[in-house]
Amino acid sequence: MIKVLILGGTTEAGELAQALAKTDVPALYSYAGRVKTPKPQPIPVRTGGFGGAEGLGEFLRAEGFTHLVDATHPFAEQMSRNAVLASDQSGVPLLALTRSPWQPVEGDRWQEVANVEAAVQALAGPRQRVMLAIGRQHLEAFASQPQHHYLLRLVDEPTGALPLPNCTVTVDRGPFTTKGDLALLKRHGIERVVSKNAGGEGAAAKLLAARELGLPVLMIKRPTLATRPEVHSVDQVLRWLGHEVALGV
Ligand code: NAP
User: I need a labelling partner for 36 at 20 to 30 A (CA). Which of 45, 47, 126, 207 fits?
Assistant: First the structure.
């Protein structure tokens, strides 16, 4: 009997959980625990770190998992690195479920940068109203460009002071719509958008809205991860698990 551990925190992980819930395959969904009210899942859920690659390897062995699916966000670099190591150590096969990065199209005004630090540097210059759509992590780095007014979109209401002196917070969680993001950018007089190249549909709305308004986008490229077996659809994961029968469900 197979038993699957899903490293989650993404729409794709939720879609895989939905698909597996319709089969007889036992599966567990793992959240890091960053969000106060994570989305409910149709399969059992656990929350919190494993204690590094070794802890994850031990967890896989102790709980009798036969398959590991890394469906974390493309910027969850540490977790994905740990998954590769834990798979090697435990012998439990790993498959990554990922989404393709966004590509610029005609009308986009992207400036691509290698990482958060480069994005911070690229913001040197006169005051602007900037949508900083990068989540809660790494906000501190932008404190070295305090001249800007930042619009932050966060999943949870922030507790305590934010590291940016001049900012507005909107609490919301995706998927977002182009219409909604157009209204948001206009309402806050946004002149520039900073985004991680997450890929996927739900978070692309801000880019479509920026294109429509002709706004420049500072696009942070994905970190480079270790080579691992990788697919882009839930169907491919089910096939890997030997559950093609579930595809028609
Ligand atoms: P990270 O830096 O790669 O991971 C840091 C540590 O958090 C990991 O070493 C692990 O702790 C724990 N962790 C991360 N994902 C976990 C999971 N799914 N289940 C159990 N433990 C997990 O990760 P991150 O960038 O902080 O992202 C955290 C979570 O948020 C991920 O699950 C990711 O899918 C989701 N997310 C991230 C972003 C983003 O921009 N980074 C955006 C949307 C959603 P131990 O070493 O103790 O095991």
Answer: 207
Distances in whole angstroms, Cα of residue 115 to Cα of each of 65, 134, 225 = 34, 11, 14
Pocket of ligand 1 (CB under 6 A): 7-10, 30-32, 34, 49-52, 55-56, 72-73, 75-79, 82, 135, 196
223's CB contacts (< 8 A; 6+ apart) are 74, 75, 77, 115
Cα(18)–Cα(8) distance, integer angstroms:
12
Atom 11, ligand 1: which residue's CA is nearest? 49
pLDDT in tens, 146-177: 999 999 999 999 988 999 999 999 999 988 99
* pLDDT tens string 41-75: 999 999 999 999 999 999 999 999 999 999 999 99
Residue 182 CA to ligand 1 center (angstroms) comes to 30
pTM over 0.90: yes
